[in-house]
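Re-run with default settings, no changes from the original entry. Doing this only to confirm the output is reproducible before filing.
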Amino acid sequence: MALFGKVGRREEIVAACAGAQALGIHVGMAATHARALVSDLDLRPAEPEADAALLDRLALFAIRRWSPIAAVSPPDGLWIDLTGCEHLHGGEYQFCQRLLVFCRRAGFTARVAVADTPGAAHAIARFGADDLACVTPGTTTVALSSLPIAALRLDPTALSAARRFGFERVADLLPVARGPLARRLGLPAITRLDQALGSTAEPITPRDDPSIPVVERRLLEPIGTAEAIEQVMGDLLRDLGELLQGRGLGVRSLRLAGLRVDGSEQIVGIGTSRPTREVPHLLRLLKLRIERIDPGLGIEQFWLAAPHTEPLDAIDLGAVLAGDTLVRDPARLVDVVAGRIGSGSVFRIAPVESHVPERAVARTNPVHIPGDWPKWQRPVRLFARPEPLWGVVALLPDQPPRRFEWRGTAHRVVAGDGPERVHGEWWRRDAEVWAVRDYYRVEDEDGGRYWLFRRGDGMDDNTGDLSWWIHGVFA
């Protein structure tokens, strides 16, 4: 299938699927030529208005789900500013992977790039070698050097002039002085090059979303001290709290943006484990981000947005008035600790329905109450991966070992219990159809208690190779 549209006075191919491209159909080909080349080609008129409407809906979805700053990049792209909120998605690379999966599920073919500047991200996403590219900060020039001149979003006149002067790659432009280059390609081409390299600011005008609570402060004079910024944060949070209370909402993420007098922005973000609109708690979290704000010559305007909100009803105080003892909610502590060491470092261990010990636990949200744990005896410290043992002496098929070596130290066992037999999960992979582990709890002469297992039942060779492993340590 291919789409055609009116380009000048003739109809040209503006998009083609992979199958059509394999048959020789390409963008820019005349529609009549395409029909003659492939007689059964499914040729349909392009609908640019519908495409623009779809991109606008995607930009609105991005604002509500991923970042409060997102905009359409015509004719087929989106800008998403991850500054200050990438940690809420597990980092830039993990977010890009999730974004590609989302696009595939929605039926789109996508290419994603993250870079220091919007121009560099635009160029690498469209002309880079990979579908997913995360440019290391400070290496924008190296990443752009190998790309063609067209990656800089130059107009046709500038591209034609670049070809006449022998400029093919971005690297060809870098050593040329700006004055002679502007006379050859025009001043807009220099502006595009500087925007891609970060020498000239290129602010993204976000798509407005009336459903996102936003408050603003315009200051009479620029401020630059931590105390003044903290004061503005408190004022913004009080305004936002009143707005959220009127809507019956609580925030799960906040994004603070400050406009400096030089036109650049400073952006920080926080997240919470539960919806809340308590000003003291949110102010405490935002104060942890003040050190990341560079005021420069001063900040003259602030915005505070809540891109992720959830319903939050009134708190029932009946139990408190009755004198009952309430269980303290760990959400506040979790938010503060996560703000200091990162959200990925705070978690709770929850049980998973699996007989294999390393699969029977998983990390979960620290404020969620885990389910019931099985009554099997398990070590306090369970290794992520079992470690091999050497020099093991044991009687087959069911006796615990009498001696083993672990991490270069020999242990003589004085007491043991077992075996506890664990079969492989045959529905996961073929190698576990006959797999067997026999677990033993043993104690050595120094009082150390260990959790060991043998691969195989000691009788059938298909169940394991009879090697010994340690999987955990008891208290």
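The mean pLDDT is 88. The two ends are 66 Å apart (CA to CA).
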